[in-house]
Amino acid sequence: MTRTRTRILTLLACAVLLLAGCSGGDEADDGRITLRFQSLAWQDESVKANKELVREWNAGHPDVRVEYVQGSWDSVHDQLLTSFEGGEAPDIIHDASDDLADFAYGGYLADLTELLPARLKSDIPERSWETVTFGDGVYGVPFLQEPRVLIANAALLKESGVRTPTPEHPWTWAEFRQVTKELSGDGTYGVAWPLKEPVSATLNLSLSTGGKLFHRGADGKVTVRFEEGDRVVPRTIHDQVDTDRSASPTTLGSGGSDTLPGFFAGKYAMVPLGFSYRQQIEQQAPEGFDWQVLPAPAGADGLAQGVSPQTLSIAEDSPHKKQAAAFVDFLLEPDNMVRLALGDWMLPTGEQALKDPALHTDEHGWATGTALAEHLRSAPAQSVRGYAEWKDKVATPALQEYYSGAIGMDELRHRLEEDGNLVLARYQR
Question: Is there a contact between 302 and 375 (Cβ–Cβ < 8 Å)?
Fold first, then answer.
């Protein structure tokens, strides 16, 4: 059912039931407003922090009650699409910036440009706002982000005698390749790449080497060009697996969690993972296992890497956008943003929150991650319409075959460019 038809039916129902006080369920008989906040928090600490903040809001705002609704990352896109089409979308929507483009262009999300307070606009840097800007509008508030880092077996690193990288003096990609060779042997691989979903990892890390891949012309249309800067990261991974034998070939089809048992057993010296995996490692690591967080390698553009932050959006159909924006502002006050970041083991986007001492401790690598925040940029595919189809039908199988050695670099380039541009062209006519 379309949103237009839903509105018509709702108006007719209200007209028929006017004497009964039909209100669509958004406002109680006593005039109190109820906002539905769909959260995707799933870790115990994160769910607890979100629910606590909802309770605190409700205690201080008796006229605007927020109802906590639990969502799931596994099904959020399809679930939201169904709720938008059915006119049942939550007022406040937790999602990720790389999932917003079609919803924004489709008219399902409210433009927040005039709804957000100046405090929030100025506290979050422009590089983060770019992740939620589509056309002339802003369709979400980016509030949590995570760089990819190297999680290393500290004992193996120390025994090898290799230089330990820091955000101030990271490894280059060439040095990283050499280090993984030195860490390999006696049943240990220098690195395990979990590349079940290879596209975002490859594209986001390639920002450090000047990779861009998607190029927008003066007419606004996007084309794929696989240039030299785009080749460094995939070539490094390919050579580690196929030439050096310093990367495990069996983890290429694995998710990040799948590599942890082997990492704990000393089978892999390092695993590139999202920053939030630290919580899982801390919870599951055997007693006495010593691990540390290292920055990802740097290239011609330093430590730059792409991210798709977690976001809070407001449904275009919400009748209470101003109140929803006020709740978002409350949720993302600096102290509250820190609580959300600590609950998810991620980094806040807000500059005030990033200054919190709790995010600058050496324990669990917090200081290393926080030092990387200024280098995070909008993911290359952020605003590319048709990206999802390009990723699923073209890029994922092409990269998987390249990393496994089934195709070479020239064939990879051909498929990403030629086949990829045919897909994108259908979305840009």
Answer: yes
Distance CA 371, CA 380 (A): 22
**Beta-strand pair 141-145/92-96:** unpaired
Cα separation, 12 vs 371, in Å, equals 56
Decide if 110 contacts 317 (C-beta within 8 A): no
Question: For residue 89, what is the DSSP state?
Answer: -
Which of 144, 167, 145 is closest to 293 using CA atoms? 167
Compute the Cα dihedral for 109, 114, 119, 125 and give only its sign. Answer: positive
For residue 366, the SS3 value is helix
| Mean per-residue pLDDT pooled into runs of 10, the chain (429 residues) | 42 37 47 94 93 97 96 92 94 95 93 96 96 94 98 96 97 98 96 96 97 91 95 98 97 96 98 97 96 98 96 97 98 98 97 98 97 94 84 95 96 96 89
Using CA atoms, how far apart are residues 6 and 8, in angstroms rounded to an integer?
A: 5
> Would you state the structure tokens that stand for residue 27, as one six-digit string?
């406002």
3-state secondary structure of 312: strand
